[in-house]
Amino acid sequence: MVCGGFACSKNCLCALNLLYTLVSLLLIGIAAWGIGFGLISSLRVVGVVIAVGIFLFLIALVGLIGAVKHHQGQLLEVGWNNTASARNDIQRNLNCCGFRSVNPNDTCLASCVKSDHSCSPCAPIIGEYAGEVLRFVGGIGLFFSFTEILGVWLTYRYRNQKDPRANPSAFL
């Protein structure tokens, strides 16, 4: 079975958020265990680790809820129905009428209505534009993630290199 559809990506996101939840609980548990058995004496370090664990837990929980519920299409339709100015701008700029279907009784400012051409609904056109924008933003995210990986590799590679201008006895 090939993974590539909506159900597969939804399940992968759920699994990833569950993994993050487990990691956050592990962080909190190890910090509490370390302070409980007296292995860590700095309360500041334990407090920071627990705070990071709680923050990661909350983010993973919100991500898990978002992956399970997936209200993206409904959110777009609610926005369409509640804002007349945005609806008019979208219809005018994308040359479409209606959200899922064209209703001849509704007011539409698209040029296709004025020229007596058949107008298409706006939802598929908005979906195409959103897909293009998300691919662009995803490409930028991948670019920056690869530059981060390159930075980590360069730091690891040259971490012990000595500066020739520095005092040679400072490295001993």
Would you kindly provide a written description of the structure presented here, covering whatever features stand out?
With 172 residues, the protein is mostly helical. The protein is built from six helices and no strands. The protein has helices at residues 6-36, 43-69, 72-82, 84-94, 111-114, 122-157. α1 (6-36) packs antiparallel against α2 (43-69). The longest helix has 36 residues, at 122-157. It is elongated. The termini are far apart. The mean pLDDT is 82.
Secondary-structure element pattern, one letter each: HHHHHH
State the low-pLDDT regions, or none. none
Helix content: 55-70%
Question: Separation of termini?
Answer: 59 Å
Report the major sheet: none
**Rounded Rg:** 26 Å
Short key terms for the protein model shown above:
single chain; 172 residues; 70% helix; elongated
Secondary structure layout plus pairing:
Elements: H1 6-36, H2 43-69, H3 72-82, H4 84-94, H5 111-114, H6 122-157
Helix pairs in contact: 1-2
Summarize the structure.
70% of the residues lie in helices and 0% in strands. The chain is built from 6 helices and no strands.
